[in-house]
């Protein structure tokens, strides 16, 4: 088994662990991102209010709406990303005398991996966004009931066509810059720290992951908001429908002001930083254990 595949498996496992640990923050930040009307009694004033209302109306399961699709999505996303990232990285390393990637090489590797991941996994995140924000229901007896990931997928295709599974792909491709920034910052900070400290441990990878994700998310958050809204079923109301990324920016600024582009930022930052920190720490450990298991298997 090639190192690229081992990295992909370790990345998928690390993503699952990090998502399980931080998913309630995903739910809260996602609901705040897509909320346009803040005057309704059911609207969320902030993250704490969202947390309380979700618990009161939906209980603890409400904080984990769409978890199954998110775990599947993060496993596929990280698996695809790490496979292409490590494949590109190894190509650069073979053609260079130095094993440390330059800033430009890190950015190219991140861009290639990010684009491949976006195109492959966008349908998963369209389904997950609608599940997480409770935007896909079927009428039961007395009240609306969630229809699950498969039911949501079928409904999207029936009502909006297969192409709608790639709603929000354009801002998602713009957001390729997020992991580019993240992994570039991570690689350069790791190289800098390794030169001064030598061998790095789990705590170092935790802090490096947190640091790199903090920078990336802070710089790209408005696009995250637009992407989340474009992944929802678009309104028939012309003033509420986003025809493009630029149109989305214009309408958010017109109706909600600059603050509308940063809804849920604090909780997204906390979630993203913790997820990245746990991911990098778990991924490095899983990579080492997987290599050991493979070596043991070969010896037998």
TrEMBL record:
Solcar repeats lie at residues 2-91, 101-192, 204-289. InterPro entries: MCP_dom_sf, MCP_transmembrane, Mito/Peroxisomal_Carrier. GO terms for molecular function: ADP transmembrane transporter activity; AMP transmembrane transporter activity; ATP transmembrane transporter activity; coenzyme A transmembrane transporter activity; FAD transmembrane transporter activity; FMN transmembrane transporter activity; NAD transmembrane transporter activity. Pfam families: Mito_carr (PF00153). The chain crosses the membrane at residues 6-26, 63-84, 104-127, 205-226. It is a multi-pass membrane protein. The keyword Repeat applies. It is found in: Peroxisome membrane. SUPFAM superfamilies: Mitochondrial carrier. The keyword Ubl conjugation does not apply. Keywords: Membrane, Peroxisome, Repeat, Transmembrane, Transmembrane helix, Transport. One of its GO terms (cellular component) is peroxisomal membrane. Belongs to the mitochondrial carrier (TC 2.A.29) family. This is Mitochondrial carrier.
């Amino acid at each position: 088994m090639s190192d690229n595949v081992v990295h992909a498996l370790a990345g998928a496992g690390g993503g699952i662990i990090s998502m399980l640990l931080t998913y309630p923050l995903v739910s809260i930040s996602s609901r705040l991102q897509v909320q346009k009307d803040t005057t309704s009694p059911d609207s969320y004033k902030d993250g704490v209010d969202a947390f309380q209302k979700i618990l009161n109306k939906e209980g603890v399961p409400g904080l984990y709406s769409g978890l199954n699709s998110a775990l599947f999505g993060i496993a596929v996303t990280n698996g695809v990303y790490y496979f292409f990232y490590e494949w590109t990285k190894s190509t650069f390393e073979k053609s260079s005398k130095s094993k440390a990637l330059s800033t430009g090489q890190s950015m190219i590797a991140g861009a290639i991996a990010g684009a491949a991941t976006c195109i492959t996994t966008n349908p998963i995140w369209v389904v997950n966004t609608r599940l997480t924000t409770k935007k896909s229901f079927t009428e039961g007896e007395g009240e609306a009931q969630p229809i699950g990931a498969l039911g949501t997928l079928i409904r999207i295709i029936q009502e909006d066509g297969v192409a709608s599974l790639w709603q929000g792909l354009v801002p998602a491709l713009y957001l390729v810059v997020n992991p580019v920034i993240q992994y570039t910052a991570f690689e350069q900070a790791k190289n800098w720290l390794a030169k001064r400290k030598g061998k790095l441990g789990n705590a170092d990878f935790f802090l490096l992951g947190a640091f790199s994700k903090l920078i990336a998310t802070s710089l790209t958050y408005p696009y995250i908001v637009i992407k989340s809204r474009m992944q929802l079923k678009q309104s028939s109301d012309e003033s509420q429908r986003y025809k493009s990324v630029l149109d989305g920016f214009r309408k958010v600024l017109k109706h909600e002001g600059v603050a509308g582009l940063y809804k849920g930022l604090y909780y997204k930052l906390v979630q993203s930083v913790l997820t990245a920190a746990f991911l990098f720490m778990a991924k490095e450990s899983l990579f080492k254990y997987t290599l050991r298991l493979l070596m043991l298997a070969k010896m037998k």
